Amino acid sequence: MFLCPGCHKALRREKTVFGFYWHCPECRGRAVTLPVLRRTHVRDYVNQIWRYAREEQGVRRRSCPACRELMIDVPIVHGESAHWLDVCTRCLIIWFDTREYEESPVVQAALAAAQPDLSPPARQALAIEQVKILAERARREGGHAAPIDSWWEVIPALLGLPVELEGEPVRRAPRATWTVAGAVAVASFLAFFNLRAAVEAFGLVPAALGRYGGLTLVTAFFLHGGVFHLLGNLYFLAVFGDNVEEVLGWKRFLLLLLAATVAGWALHVAADPRSTVPCVGASGGISGVIACYALRFPKARLGIYGRYVVCLRRFELPAWGAFIGWVLLQGVLAGMQVSGLTSISGFAHLGGAGAGVLAWAVCRERT
After folding, report:
1. Percent of the chain having pLDDT more than 90?
2. Domain 151-366 has what CATH class?
3. Hey, where are the domains in the chain?
């Protein structure tokens, strides 16, 4: 249950053509998630809110309606008006006090569509007009390319990693994700002191699958071939694992990681069962998490970065689109793997992704 950070009354959830929001019947305040705000407000205004919140440019005073952690109160200036907004960077929730939402730079079609006295056909027509406005804006700006909003995005941009721009807010701490990430980091770091020996001892060798009673199917998950290999996998686990853990619960999340890891290694072994080259990495298990995330949150916005002239530009696309591109890439890697042109196991990634698809289908059927 969401609670008003001001008067602590239960908030009421309302649905619009742009998504849900929660309002307080007493003080008329309103809680809006970042993805919904991006659909209804001027982009520069939303970017300013999120940038200030991520950079901690404010003070923490009131509790988040969802997670009860203290939100950061950031100063927002737009045109000649200025006000303070409470932001929870954990849940991606922005709290508007009385009249603040009405005074914010809402796109006109969105403001009209939110009016309760409009008929559903009228709201739908206004929503279509809003989509046309956004499409025209994107066309004038050169498609879906956009400049980098925050300094922290530069790091994954330089490494070629995607950034989650608009995802579902997480209301519980992803303790299983953090625990697995911590265990992988510690095990890999310790192995770096004598990496060759560690990989030979605990890596997965297709021709010797029965070593330690088959436990190398699990031990290989915790080892990595280098620092960048480790950091890349930890990044993907942190970005996509929290949402998947919240949907599945921590027990089924860990079961997904195990199943995806085993499925990934199984396909890797099937591709070349006589290989004596040890293989390590958490990529197979994390591929299952990625697949489950993309299918469960297909409309989540991801940012992929590329160089445009001399500047880094962000190209936005939905999670389902990024997943299709990722699967095609793994298919190419699998072909190269068969030809001996790469040491990356595309088969392990595809096997893990298959387990993620199965997990999504099972959970979807149950819900």
Report:
1. 49
2. mainly alpha
3. 12-106, 151-366
